[in-house]
Design brief:
- The structure holds two protein chains of two kinds.
- Chain A is 31% helix and 20% strand.
- Chain A is of the alpha/beta class.
- In chain A, helix 8 crosses helix 10.
- The longest helix of chain A has 14 residues.
- Chain B is of the alpha/beta class.
- Chain B has two domains: 89 residues, Elongation Factor Tu (Ef-tu), domain 3 (Beta Barrel), CATH 2.40.30.10; 103 residues, Nucleotide-binding domain of ferredoxin-NADP reductase (FNR) module (Rossmann fold, 3-Layer(aba) Sandwich), CATH 3.40.50.80.
- In chain B, 17% of the residues lie in helices and 31% in strands.
- In chain B, helix 3 packs parallel to helix 4.
- Chain B is globular and about 55 Å long.
- Chain B starts with a strand and ends in a 6-residue tail after the last strand.
- In chain B, 46% of the residues are buried.
- Classes of the chains: A alpha/beta, B alpha/beta.
- Chains A and B meet through strand 5, strand 6 and helix 9 of A and strand 15 of B.
Chain lengths: 296, 246
């Protein structure tokens, strides 16, 4: 018997519900030597900005207990270069490409959505309103229900592509933001982005990151992500893409039980470039029964 | 599986060597490239650790890494004298460029920065290039070195081994003694030393930065260059010293 794990998420057909998370998988090419892109449910690109963006001063990475702090700062070559240079490589692969976009204003989000809608290779958009490492835009949008709704509305008007809105965990009540963007026209939600954190080197007495603060990811944040997916699943009707420290098929199943319809793997890619493939294989073995929401 | 254990755990700061056997890509490795190794099976430490290739045996498909014990990752690895069952990713990055027309080369190593330069020295010797390797450190290093076919000059800041002084002092003398004859110059070591070397002469430097993915995806290991931020893992780790904003 062949197990079918395919799903349709916000109108995007996926072979299986496991995607590569934004910012951890480049534009696919970087990992293509180590992992068969055709097997992945979908690739969410590194966040694309309208104009080239330099990113934050190094160090940009610090390891913490079972996690990583990062402050990359949305380094990007800009949307034009993405379309001209990065996107053509993905033509030869049979995998949906979801473009993560990050604007400094709602107008920029709309502009990005409009430009990317012209490309047939893009299956959907993920609005990054939750990056903790930039001064303008980023998490500021994701921490306020009205601002989050405004950005979603602006993007909604600019495109017919499925819209996934990526939420920040750095809020008191994530369900308020979730409900606001659902009402504003989001087709799905992805959560969680990184948690704002900080680490200090006691020998140099300086912060470990050039940006001082950064976003925490990895297994350390998984219980928080599970809790937020579970809370949000009860508050909205649109599907949820869960993420936060998924390293194994068992971790992914925990998210499905919490109410996620699909999952994304981020930090796991750094630890093992075949992490996503192994998770997918594990889910095929587990079967669809375990990929449903728990009764609690 | 035939991993050989060292047995006892070495202290922080100890220099260790591990031989990686049965690595299919070993014949493809070039000096300056690195591999990343998963140092454990759980989530502590989480990230893979990058290691420069120290020496290669292409026929036996094996290579060596030389490293200083700094934390949990290197401590885990130090337990292996030989290993063939580790999770290794590589070859990664761009190696040193060798100009076959320039018959003299000088390599400047700061401490454990000797690791990739040993491999480079051996490859240069194979190409019939005269090699002088300067190894500088604060104090006497307990590193098992065997310079075959090239000259090894050792200096320490406290004079406990070799000449007393800095590697850059020896480099200065050497460059002057060459009387402007063409030279290939390579350096690897602490950033302060690399900066000092770059001030003396243009050269190829191998840089180090904390990295997450090792394949150019996460944009974590950024280094500032005249052409904006470049990634140590994918654009480097070898750069031209004049391109770096020190």
């Amino acid at each position: 018997m062949v197990t079918d794990l395919s799903i349709e998420l916000a109108g995007i057909k996926l072979k299986n519900p496991v995607m590569a998370a934004s910012g951890t998988f480049g534009y696919g090419k970087e990992y293509s030597e180590f992992c068969d892109l055709n097997q992945i449910g979908a690739i969410v690109t590194k966040s694309i900005t309208l104009k080239p963006k330099e990113g934050n001063p190094p160090p940009r990475i610090a390891e913490t207990p079972s996690g990583i702090l990062n402050a990359i700062g949305l380094q990007s070559d800009g949307v034009e270069k993405f379309i001209a240079k990065a996107l053509p490589f993905l033509e030869k692969f049979d995998v949906p490409v979801i473009a993560s976009i990050a604007g400094g204003s709602k107008e920029e989000f709309a502009e990005l959505a409009k430009i990317l809608s012209k490309s047939k290779r893009i299956a959907g958009l993920e609005l990054n309103i939750s990056c903790p490492n930039v001064k303008k835009g980023g998490m500021l949008f994701g921490c306020d229900p009205d601002a989050a709704a405004e950005v979603t509305k602006a993007a909604r008007k600019a495109t017919k592509l499925p819209l996934i809105v990526k939420l920040s965990p750095n809020v008191t009540d994530i369900t308020l933001i979730a409900k606001a963007v659902e009402k504003a026209g989001a087709d799905a939600l992805s959560l969680i982005n990184t948690l704002l954190g900080m680490a200090i080197d006691i020998n140099t007495k300086k912060p470990k990151l050039g940006n001082i603060t950064g976003g925490l990811s990895g297994p350390a944040i998984r219980p928080i992500a599970i809790r937020m997916v579970w809370q949000t699943a009860q508050a909205v009707k649109i599907p949820i893409v869960g993420m936060g420290g998924i390293m194994t098929a068992e971790d992914a199943i925990e998210f499905f039980l919490a109410g996620a319809s699909a999952v994304q793997v981020g930090t796991g890619n750094f630890v093992d470039p075949k992490c996503i493939i192994k998770i997918i294989e594990g889910l095929y073995k587990a079967g669809p029964d375990l990929l449903t929401r728990g009764d609690f | 599986m035939s991993s050989k254990w060292r047995g006892t755990q070495a202290a922080k700061g100890t220099v260790c060597k591990t031989v990686i056997r049965r690595f299919e890509s070993a014949p493809r490795l070039i000096p300056g490239q690195f591999v990343t190794i998963r140092c454990g099976t759980g989530t502590e430490p989480l990230l893979r650790r990058p290691f420069a290739v120290h020496r290669v045996n292409r026929e036996e498909k094996s290579f060596e890494i030389l490293y200083e014990i700094k934390g949990e990752g290197t401590r885990f690895l130090s337990q292996y004298e030989e290993a063939d069952d580790l999770d290794i990713l590589g070859p990664l990055g761009n190696g040193f460029k060798i100009d076959l027309n320039i018959k003299n080369a000088i390599l400047v190593a700061g401490g454990i920065g000797i690791a990739p330069l040993t491999f480079l020295a051996e490859e240069l010797v194979k190409e019939k290039i005269n090699v002088t390797l300067i190894l500088g450190s604060k104090t006497k290093l307990d590193i098992p070195l065997s310079a075959i076919g090239y000259k090894l000059l050792i200096c320490t800041e406290d004079g406990s081994e070799g000449t007393k002084g800095l590697a850059t002092d020896l480099l200065n003398e050497f460059v002057r003694a060459q009387n402007f004859a063409p030279l290939q110059i390579y350096a690897c070591g602490p950033k302060a030393m690399l900066k000092a070397v770059a001030q003396i002469t243009n050269c190829q430097v191998s840089l180090e930065e904390i990295m997450a993915c090792g394949v150019g995806a996460c944009l974590g290991c950024a280094v500032k260059t005249k052409d904006g931020y470049k990634m140590v893992c994918k654009d480097g780790p070898v750069f031209n010293s004049e391109d770096i904003i020190w």
